[in-house]
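Q: A reviewer asked whether we had any structural model of the full assembly, not just the individual parts. We don't, so I'm hoping you can provide one. Inputs are below.
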Amino acid sequence: MDGTRHDGGKSVTIGSIGELNAFTSRRGFMRLMGLGGALVLLPSIVTACDDNNDGIGLGVPNSGATVTIDFAKGDTAVLQFAYALEQLEADFYTQVAANFGGSNLSAAEQAVLADIKNHEVIHRDFLKAALGSNASFSLTPTYGSLNFKDRTAVLGAARTFEDLGVAAYNGAAQYISDVNNLLVAGKIVSVEARHASAIRDLIAPKSGEFAPQAFDDAFYPGKVAASAQGFIVDKLAFANAPTSSAFVQGPNKNGV
Amino acid sequence: MTDMNTQLLDAVDPEIMSAVGARANEIAQGASASSKLVAALALGSIPIALGAISRDVYGQAPSDVLDVLQFALTLEYLEADFYQRGNAATGLIPSTDATIFTTISAHETTHVTALQSLISGKGATPGTKPAFDYTANGNLPGFGFLPTQYATFLAVAQAFEDTGVRAYKGQAGRLINDKAALTAALTIHSVEARHAAEVRRLRGNKGWITLASRDTLPAFTQGVYDGEDNVTQAGVNLSTIAASNGGASGASEAFDEPLTKQQVIDIVKAFIPALR
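A: Here is a predicted structure for the entire assembly that you could use as a starting point for your response.
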């Protein structure tokens, strides 16, 4: 590994921390990076910048590095996992809303998406507040070539995010030990399911698509991360995670 | 292990022994447990440990989990029966909406079967389907799935689905030590939320609940929505966070609220005379 990133023929060589910090916004950095794929940083750089002791591998600001969620932290880890996903969702819908101008989404569809944007930003900021010092990590989402002004592309991605969110919360609940935290997760997951239903109904109105299964998915965190990773520049990693073989499956048995 | 322990083990439900073994391993690896249970396991006494662990593994007690499952079964019986009658009623559901309700009906019927299996699997007998009163104890006079009553059918469907979401949410904590039951309940819970959003949107409402609004539902359903206007979560007041994201409406929509078992009973007893 040489600090050089190859992305669709373009390459960017990261020479120093200073160059990375020179980008004034995450968005600007993502544009430079051409969007998509994983950013590879020299381990020494990552280590050098991980100067907090909260168990989170905090990468270089405005770039991306390994973000580690340590399940030894118990419920805190589950909430951090949720916080990571809500960061992704909140960012996605914020971009969607920012691209309503010139979009071929109908006014009614935009109203639904604007509501969802509000909910996801509130989820993200709530988890940040609840986690306090354990929320000191920030993921950099990436959407590849997704056209935010295209209805089909936006709704398709939204469906992916919402279904994944439902499966993530349903699957992670078994690692929660405090009933109050379980309740908070429950309060959020049903709203994610309402979102999923609405998005799916926009895509295929009055079909059975709003609820394609009698039992929703409950995914092992590693399975969620594998799906989410395609939308996150940072490397989402787990430490001390329970094994997938110990994961308690939901009735549809497709969680691992 | 003593002979007495072996004989006891042979007589115990394999599922319970599996839970005991798994729980003992967790405790050996540092999981928290009651002092009684730790002492019993340290003594190597299966009879004593069984008594302690039955409460530990299954929450307050195995009967607690069973109570949740039986309660959920009652609600699913109600929903399944309601949609079966709706789908069977000539001229009630417009053909444009038929797929929605055959989908929901199939799910509720599957939920009934799954809960019956879970209950049977724990060595208990699933409760039987109660009788239902779809006039809601007189609140919906004359309602009988007639062709002119689709609006009422939709209103009741919304009330049932939004109640179902809140009911499962309120019971999840009692399942926290029975991961299989918890995961089953949660994967039903979120499907009920999908149903709720679909029916709400079909009625021209948002898919999510704003403040404590029952929208255009009749007043007797207000208990379905009371408390949904909560904007403080886990001690975090969302007013500032939500200020530029929908305000109190957005904050209330972003979180669904639980109902206690008694609150659910107070809602559904209009439809279930046995609970009155």
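A: Points you may want to mention in the reply: The longest strand of chain A covers residues 66-70. DSSP finds eight helices and four strands in chain A.
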